[in-house]
Specification:
- This protein has one domain: Amino acid/polyamine transporter I.
- The protein has 18 helices and no strands.
- The longest helix has about 35 residues.
- Bound molecules: phenylalanine.
- Phenylalanine binds next to helix 1, helix 2, helix 10 and helix 14.
Length: about 450
């Protein structure tokens, strides 16, 4: 397959697209509840450490491969490996990535559908004056309604595929430009409000004062998985975006900006949500519903709270939309290279992911008692195994490929920071990022050894 000629229209557009992919449910929905389940501060500390020590080098590796290959992930890995006389089977790494994005998108669309429902409930005034108990109860009632959950999941899949069918580089640039900053602004407002609530001090302590005696292999694995999930790495999704990266752009600068923003959004939403949790004596370990209970409680107590809550869900929806477009892109780009046109490929991918998404969608109602492994529902399984195991595993293989298979000259060219910068990245990747990922993954397999 020939190299793609499409490029993001500017350097800024590339950064916006990657930020759009990174910032999403991972920061605002997943971070608080997974941190809640893993003790708070220690999880946060490990997550930040993993973003820096492994996330950044792997993110660079992934975009670098896309940029050097200038093709969709499967084709890029095969071509780059063959150029170096290595097996085209390296493309299986991208195949594994596609499996991961498929599974992630299946639940991502379901949970984004919850946001659609919450937006509509807010607009209908359902949260105005509601008590904390009523708000908690409303989530249970909604999740127990299979039709409504599936309807919202379907709507969200349609929204995603409509953009991917047209081609992402011409997609949401302009909207991205001003909607994402608005979301950050609203989060800041929420944190300022949170600072006036009684639970604020406890929230800060919970998030920033680690109890090292609570360290377990599971916390470490979850923190690594979350770092990869929130940075959108390990599944070849950013690799697909790297293929459209302009020639004259600094990869390192883009990656650092995105990582800083990504952590910042998680911190803001963590502080806001845990302030509500502690002010209202909610349970921080209550799981995936945490954000959907905490936010309506927080906003409904604020001046102009209900319109702001509506705005928040709208902006959150936009953030999840840009992430899900990134999740769909590698699948659609990889299969729409031959006879299949992009819209048809998007239709096929959309239908398959939609069907797979029915399993997590129905996990709170029709399939609540179906627990295939270790007492977990489909929702529990698909929201933990692909992010926590598949992404680090995929990231490991991507980093290995970039550091050991990819032509060093091509790699250095794609990185674009000169030989000493390339040397630094190569050594951090080889001797820090890769061994650490291996160690963490092994610790998941043999918890007793650690
Ligand atoms: N980073 C996205 C989020 O935080 C999710 C994502 C994961 C996107 C993997 C692409 C690839 O919501």
């Amino acid at each position: 397959m020939k190299e793609v000629v499409d490029r993001w229209s500017s350097r800024r557009a590339f950064i916006l697209a990657v930020t759009g992919a990174a910032v999403g449910l991972g920061n605002i929905w997943r971070f608080p509840y997974v941190a809640g389940e893993n003790g708070g501060a220690l999880f946060f500390l490990l997550y930040v450490f993993f973003v820096l020590a492994m996330g950044l080098p792997v993110m660079i590796a992934e975009i670098m491969i896309g940029r050097a290959g200038r093709r969709p992930p499967i084709q890029a890995l095969a071509a780059l490996a063959q150029e170096r006389g290595r097996s085209a089977k390296w493309s299986w790494v991208a195949g594994f990535g596609l499996l991961t994005v498929f599974l992630v998108l299946s639940f991502y669309s379901v949970v984004s559908g919850w946001s659609i429902e919450y937006l509509s409930s807010t607009v209908q005034g359902k949260f105005a004056g509601a008590s904390a108990e009523n708000i908690s109860h409303a989530l249970d009632v909604f999740l127990a309604n299979p039709w409504l959950v599936v309807l919202n999941h379907s709507l969200f899949m349609l929204l995603t595929m409509a953009v991917v069918a047209k081609g992402v580089s011409s997609g949401l640039e302009r909207l991205n430009n001003w909607l994402m900053p608005l979301l950050y602004l609203l989060l800041v407002v929420l944190v300022i409000y949170a600072a006036t609530t009684p639970g604020f001090g406890e929230a800060l302590k919970w998030l920033f004062s680690p109890k090292f005696e609570e360290l377990t292999p599971l916390v470490v694995v979850n923190a690594l998985g979350h770092a990869f999930f929130t940075l959108a790495i390990g599944a070849c999704a950013l690799m697909a975006y790297g293929a459209y990266m302009p020639e004259d752009q600094s990869l390192v600068k883009a990656v650092v900006i995105v990582a800083v923003l990504d952590v910042l959004v998680a911190v803001l939403s963590g502080v806001a949500i845990f302030s509500v949790v502690f002010s209202h004596h909610l349970d921080p370990t209550s799981g995936p519903g945490l954000m959907f209970v905490a936010l309506p409680i927080a906003f409904s107590a604020m001046p102009f709270g209900i319109p702001l809550l509506g705005a928040f869900f709208l902006l959150l929806l936009f953030a999840t939309w840009t992430s899900s477009i990134n999740l769909a892109e590698p699948m659609v780009a990889s299969i729409s290279t031959g006879r299949l046109s992009r819209p048809v490929a998007a239709l096929i991918v959309g239908l398959c992911v939609w069907a797979a998404g029915l399993l997590p969608a129905l996990s709170f109602s029709t399939l609540a008692n179906v627990r295939p492994i270790a007492g977990m529902t489909f929702f529990d399984l698909v929201t933990s195994v692909p992010p926590d195991i598949f992404l680090p595993l995929g990231g490991l293989m991507i980093a290995w490929f970039a550091a050991n298979v990819l032509d060093p000259e091509k790699a250095a060219g794609a990185l674009g920071v000169g030989t000493s910068g390339f040397w630094l990245w190569l050594h951090i990747t080889r001797y820090v990022a890769i061994p650490l990922v291996v160690l963490v993954l092994l610790s998941a397999l043999v918890p007793k050894l650690i």
